[in-house]
Amino acid sequence: MRSWGSSAAALAVMLCVAVPAGAKDSSKAEAPSLPPAMVALEKSLHPQTGDVRIPEAKAVLHLGDRYYFLPAAEARRVLVEAWRNPPESAEGVLGMVLEKDTTVFDNVWGAVITYEDTGHVADTDAKTQDYAAVLKGMQEGTEEQNAERKQAGYPAMRLVGWAQPPSYDAGNHALIWARELALEGDPVNGLNYDVRLLGRTGVLSLNMLASMKDIGDVRSAAQSFGRSVSFEPGAGYADFNASTDKAAEYGLAGLVAGGAAIGVAKKVGLLAIILKFGKLILVGLAAFGAAAFGLFRKLVGRKDEEETI
After folding, report:
1. Is pTM beyond 0.90 here?
2. Phi, psi torsion values for 158, nearest 5 degrees
3. Could you tell me where the beta strands, DSSP code E, fall in 100-236?
4. Mean pLDDT of 240-268
């Protein structure tokens, strides 16, 4: 008997620290064993390549033929119907990006796209940010949330550290970082890659979930995303007008510690769970200091709803 599962991506939700998804080696040969409804879902999708516009962000993803995009409605169907995410967790999702020659049931990573009208995020102190202090605060918050996770029936999680320390590409106004997380009882550490593209008055987010064993592939894709987004005329970072535009209440360190994702998380609610290769993904926020939060996602052992064929 073998369970079927889904891909590695989810929208972040609030209050229980989440961990990055561990990917599983899979092949397209498994597709025929999917339930008929999932086969039908896969066939109903309309992947797009090339240049894809994200109207809400006034931005364009230049995907070429290396990746494909699923529009908002289809991405939400994947989240809810294929990956078993509660419907409210798909609110705010603007689309999804996956690697070419993969499906929503067979891939190493998946990137969920959201946009938050944060206001203009200043990058003037990009070279002086103390990300070691940010990491320490996030680790402390993670530990503090373990009691809640265990009470909710989920294993403890530990933020191991940076899989890639935060780095800022001033030319493309792209902030990229990655976290390595360990889940109690899971032999493989998870990987959560975050790509934030700064615009005039908001931040476009591509959040990628995978396993540490796939860090090379995910790092390459994250760097590609950091260079492949352009904002439309008038919506770019340099178009900010201090006299008329809203400014964010935090800088780059605030984005790493939570920042724009907090608004999305509040829309979704307390807790979201989705399936990934026959397991559960628990997504949420970890406290950072008294007011900031850090987003984490992680594959957790499937409890009692595993389907078999």
Report:
1. no
2. -130, 130
3. 110-116, 157-169, 174-183, 190-198, 203-211, 229-231
4. 72
